[in-house]
Structure formats: structure tokens, C-alpha cells
Amino acid sequence: MIQNCFETHPNRCSLTSNHIRGVLSFYWYTVNTDPQFAYRTTFVPFEQPDDVTLEWLEHAKNSSTNIYKHIWHALARQFLQFFMTQTDINGFLKRGSMFILSEHQFAILLKEGGFDSQRYDMVRFVDIGAGDGEISAVLLKALRLSNPDVIIDAYATEASWTMRERLKKMNFKVLERLDEVSNAQFVSCLNVLDRCIDPIQLLEDIHTILAPNGRCVIALVLPYMHYVESNSSHMPIRPLMNHWPGKAKQYSFESEAAIFFRVLENVGFRIESWTKAPYLCEGDLRQSYYWLIDLVVVVSKIS
């Protein structure tokens, strides 16, 4: 389930600048892949936002100036918070849409990771924690870029009932459990692992449902911090990476990425391609949009 980490962890959010193609573009997309970095050869660089990303940013900027919409959202949230979770509220109000990569960037990352929809007449696609389906729609476009005629059998999981209703309207088959589907050629799990109660179990479940020649794209915000909305402690049964919380924020992006890659390998995945990208969220009256830093990785299943 994609939770709104921009609200559950506001200290992890930063205001962007008007110089989108400048300093922040460098920070959003660039990594230090020196020759000693074991995963250097699978890195896919995106040096700056493409036109689709810039269009999303411009839309978010324009949306942030709608004072009447933001007043309505503020009043509604005050009332709805007594019987709905923050994620359900966002789904009900259709607010807080998110963005990571454009369909063109996702297509490049997938191709570099060995996935080509031209090989298939039909692709079984499972989006785990699909949220409002906005990023799911981008992934569908990415799959169709190289093969416009491919038939996509689209499934999704989502904890929020308001989000599930939106997904059904987008023709996703909403699953109650992951074991309701198998042999999926393409799976996505975007910014879910640090919000679920047992991320290691979720990775093992993904490994089970992934087809032998399939690919899974996973996104994780770094530095890694865990927050579970559904329980009172907001803590997972077991963390994704053992250095959290004791050594949280003590590693560079590259070092923490390598730690996560080893977790994936221990579960039985192979790192095929990866990149660094902004995890963007629509803003409010104070600022146009918020951002975190995502590690986005394409993995295959080790036989």
C-alpha cells in the first residue's frame, strides 16, 4: 500500500527550487558510482527531468494556487480524520498524487533490465500497493511504448478502500492477497516496503508470484525509514534493513543502496538495472510540490 510518507514523515520533505534543471536535478538523479562500487555497471543514468516530468511539475505548481480546493481539503480532513486513515482521506479527496519517472524513463530502465514487452502477446502485470493508480497508469504506458498491441492483464493490491475503488474504475482487478495470482511477467512494488508490516515477507511473496523470466521494479525511499500506518506502534515486525533504526541516516545513498541490493539478493533476486529519481508529491498552499529521493531497481528471479 502506497502511504503518503510526505505527511507521515514531514521532516523528510524539502521544498524544490525554480532551477529544476540545475542543482536539484543533479541531486535528484546523480550517484557516485566509482570503480569500486559493485553495482556500477547496472546503473542507468537520467541526468535531468524529461518533458513529461516537467509537465507534471508545472501541473502541480498550477494546482497549488487553487485556494478554494485547499480550503475544502483542510476542512474535510479535520472532519474525516476521526474515522478514516490519512491514506483513505487522500483517496476520497483525490489529493496528493505522486510521480517518480515518466513512461519513457521507466521504459528505458525496464529495457536495460532485460524486459521487453515485444516478446509477449499478453503481460500479466501486478502492482503492489498501487495507491490511486496514477503511477500504475504510467507503468502501463511504459509497457505499451515498445509494443502498442500488447494485452495487459492488470492486477493490483491496495489497503485503502477509497484507493481500491479508484483502481477498479481504471479496470484493475483488485486482489485481496498476492497468492491469488501467479506467473506474473511484470510486478511493481513502488514505495511500499518501508510502509508495510513485514517487508521481507512481501519480497518473498513477490519472488513466489514472479514468472521465471519476469521482472519486478521496486522503489524505496533513501535514507531508509520505516513507518506502518496500520498499527499503533507504527513499527514493522522486522525491518527491511538491520541498520535501522539504530544507524538510520548514517550511510550515503550508494552505501545504503548496496545494503538493500544484498537484501534483494538474499531473497533470491538478481539486480538487473537501477537508477536514482525524485519521488514527487503534489503540494499545498505553502509549496507547489514535495520530494524525497527514490532508489528504483529492476530485478529478476534467480532460478
Automatic annotation (TrEMBL):
<protein>
    <recommendedName>
        <fullName>Methyltransferase-like protein 9</fullName>
    </recommendedName>
</protein>
<dbReference type="InterPro" id="IPR007884">
    <property type="entry name" value="METL9"/>
</dbReference>
<dbReference type="Pfam" id="PF05219">
    <property type="entry name" value="DREV"/>
</dbReference>
<dbReference type="InterPro" id="IPR029063">
    <property type="entry name" value="SAM-dependent_MTases_sf"/>
</dbReference>
<dbReference type="GO" id="GO:0106370">
    <property type="term" value="F:protein-L-histidine N-pros-methyltransferase activity"/>
</dbReference>
